[in-house]
């Protein structure tokens, strides 16, 4: 069997790993085995935290909307219920941004939705 010299290919593979781990500290950026382990760990953490980030932002948006709607003598659950009832397809991000930038606009939207759903309720009962 002929001898295979793998120097170039192995060095290229290690260089890719070292470029990924160049910002790591200590042996995690210098030794091949620990660098490979840290790379796998970093990728696992990144994958897990992308899902976690979505959950965290959703919780933040819900908290912001709830804080503003309670000032207006309403509640978050009532607002969302009325949104779905009025068939307004707004995700939670948009009302949360409105709660920060322009509270009066969110008040107006919630009041309009509330009055519109009352109209729908009256018309359906007749």
Automatic annotation (TrEMBL):
Q: Does the keyword rRNA-binding apply?
A: yes
- Principal cellular location given in the protein's record: plastid
Listed NCBIfam families: rplT_bact
Per the record, its GO cellular-component terms are:
chloroplast; ribonucleoprotein complex; ribosome
Q: What does this protein do?
A: Binds directly to 23S ribosomal RNA and is necessary for the in vitro assembly process of the 50S ribosomal subunit. It is not involved in the protein synthesizing functions of that subunit.
Family to which the UniProt record says this protein belongs: Belongs to the bacterial ribosomal protein bL20 family.
Subcellular location(s): the record lists:
Plastid, Chloroplast
Which GO BP terms sit in this record? ribosomal large subunit assembly; translation
Tell me what this protein is called. Answer: Large ribosomal subunit protein bL20c
Please provide, alphabetically and separated by semicolons, the GO molecular function terms listed in this UniProt record: rRNA binding; structural constituent of ribosome
* Gene3D superfamilies on file: 6.10.160.10, Ribosomal protein L20
Q: Which UniProt keywords apply?
A: Chloroplast, Plastid, Ribonucleoprotein, Ribosomal protein, RNA-binding, rRNA-binding
User: One matching Pfam family, short form?
Assistant: Ribosomal_L20
Matching entries from InterPro entries are given as: Ribosomal_bL20, RIBOSOMAL_L20_CS, Ribosomal_protein_bL20_C
């Amino acid at each position: 069997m002929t001898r295979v010299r793998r120097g170039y290919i192995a060095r290229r593979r290690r260089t890719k790993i070292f470029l990924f781990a160049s910002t790591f500290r200590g042996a995690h950026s210098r030794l091949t085995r620990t660098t490979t382990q840290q790379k796998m760990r970093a990728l696992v953490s990144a994958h897990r935290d992308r899902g976690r980030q979505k959950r965290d932002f959703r919780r933040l948006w819900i908290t912001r909307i709830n804080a503003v709607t309670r000032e207006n003598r309403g509640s978050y659950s009532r607002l969302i219920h009325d949104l779905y009832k009025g068939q307004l397809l707004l995700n939670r991000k948009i009302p949360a941004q409105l709660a920060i930038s322009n509270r009066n606009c969110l008040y107006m939207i919630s009041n309009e939705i509330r009055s519109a759903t009352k109209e729908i309720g009256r018309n359906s009962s007749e």
